[in-house]
């Protein structure tokens, strides 16, 4: 079975065309393919399928390295768009795609970057600490022997975001792992550590659900911007600098405003899976 290896700012993906080839896999196979020694190695697997809904161009499914299927992936969405456009699966530069958390719209720009309408942030989905957001912009949680204050938001997938003074010294591994599986998050959670530089620049590291710390997280960048905007720390057009590179995130700040994310997507190599 053919696959492409891609990345968005170092958040890397195995991408499979399940339209033009039969694709069968199990959780164990995803885990094996994700292994950076015994497999291909990736943070997430993206499976490209035909749309199920009329009027939509594609459907794509997202699996973390631990095999869990998830609702959304920002960097993956950009790589998906580059994949279907460069492979000639579409000649459209405005691409609609079904995901497990709804339909998103992707725009292939002249410079090759992809702009994504990531939809509306959801502050009170059932899989987050549940309360009325306007009364509780911050949740105080105990984890890894310390009390932390986080903002919680869903970009289709759950995110907990905290502000830190120094991103380089942030306890991403220890605190990220403890919060990822915290009892307050019944579906686990992606954990963002954000250092505000000014109201248009944020440094971010993300301990991803099902993948540990990645070099970049697109939905994490959106979640951090939205939470920090609600806390009055940033404006409506922010550069999010992750270890793998920068994303532009825009959000007008109303609860019904969509979040726009813009950034690159790269093809690295093509391959054939030996044990499909
Ligand atoms: N780990 C995430 C999925 C991948 C998200 C990330 N790679 C992105 O670019 O948004 C989750 O379990 O919800």
From TrEMBL:
Its EC number is 5.1.1.7. GO terms for molecular function: diaminopimelate epimerase activity. The keyword Ribosomal protein does not apply. The active site is at residues 73, 217. InterPro entries: DAP_epimerase_AS, DAP_epimerase_DapF. It catalyses: (2S,6S)-2,6-diaminopimelate = meso-2,6-diaminopimelate. HAMAP family: DAP_epimerase. Homodimer. Catalyzes the stereoinversion of LL-2,6-diaminopimelate (L,L-DAP) to meso-diaminopimelate (meso-DAP), a precursor of L-lysine and an essential component of the bacterial peptidoglycan. This is Diaminopimelate epimerase. It comes from Thiomicrorhabdus marina. The gene is dapF.
